[in-house]
Amino acid sequence: MPSSTPRSGIDPMEWWRRFQEEHAWQLREFVFTLGLLRRNPSAVAGSCIIAAMVFLALAAPWIAPHDPIRISLSERLSSPSWHHLFGTDELGRDIFSRVLFGARISLRIGLLVVGIAGGLGTVLGAVAGYVGGKLDDAIMRCLDIVLSFPSLVLAMALAAALGPSLRNAIMAVAFVMIPKFARLVRGEALAVREKPFIAAAKVSGAGHGWIILHHVIPNCLSSVIVLGTLVVGETILIASSLSFIGLGAQPPTPEWGAMISVGRKFLMDQWWYATFPGCFILVTVIGFNIFGDALRDVLDPRIRR
């Protein structure tokens, strides 16, 4: 008679029971945090905006009425209508469809940058804060040099040096964002390394790498998540700026900043060309910012008491 358990021999219900027992405190904190977010108007508004943008980005291939790169010169610069909700561009391409597909690109840029910068910055900050000494000084002085330049200016310089492309723009923006995560995590790591459980881990024979991975970084994740939410909006804005000046996504890629760059030439007569992509950038950045602010407030220990 075949067994109803997985090949590993672990009953899923038994695994779930053990997981609840081992992570009961984390689960209670997670549920409590969700309750606070539901009662926070800014969190609700921000999450609704983010959810709407994510839905439009994921569903773009099915809800976009036209091919975003199909050229129809007979319909060039048509005003908004039922056939073209946001009008068309100078090549007759449907702006509504291009804006929807542009959401996929912008959100992907934001998530990739946060993933790369957040991961590297968290590791650098945790190592610097936990180890301290000359290594801390060396890491933080290098990061201070990066922070001494405005984010947009440095991203423009790096993107220009690497060459105009979407991949290089992502790399440039990620490099600029690393110090923000590193400084935040370093500050938290300096406090965490003085905790009694760190001393207990050292006494038990745990190595420095194990302590950083299993104790220091997990205790910094809540702050990293909050900063990551805020950085997504900033990243979308910087990436759109790079595309606006020709250093990001290249034609015919439907990217919001690139669309505004071309649309500004027609702004006086064909206002819809640049207006709708700009509105999507505005709404998306506001959504991530207000949700990040609300999440920061909810995770504040003074409020959680």
TrEMBL record:
Q: Where in the cell is it found?
A: Cell membrane
Q: Which UniProt keywords apply?
A: Cell membrane, Membrane, Transmembrane, Transmembrane helix, Transport
Coiled coil stretches, renumbered: none
UniProt keyword Transferase present: no
Q: Where is the ABC transmembrane type-1 domain?
A: 103-292
Q: Does the keyword Cell membrane apply?
A: yes
A Gene Ontology annotation in the biological process aspect, one of them, is:
transmembrane transport
Which membrane topology term applies here? Answer: Multi-pass membrane protein
Q: Which domain of life does the UniProt lineage start with? A: Bacteria
Q: Where does the UniProt entry say this protein principally localizes? A: membrane
Q: Which GO terms describe its cellular component?
A: plasma membrane
Task: Give TM segment ranges.
Answer: 43-64, 109-131, 143-162, 223-249, 270-291
By sequence similarity, the record places it as follows: Belongs to the binding-protein-dependent transport system permease family.
Q: What is this protein's record name?
A: Peptide/nickel transport system permease protein
Q: Say which species the protein is native to.
A: Desulfacinum hydrothermale DSM 13146
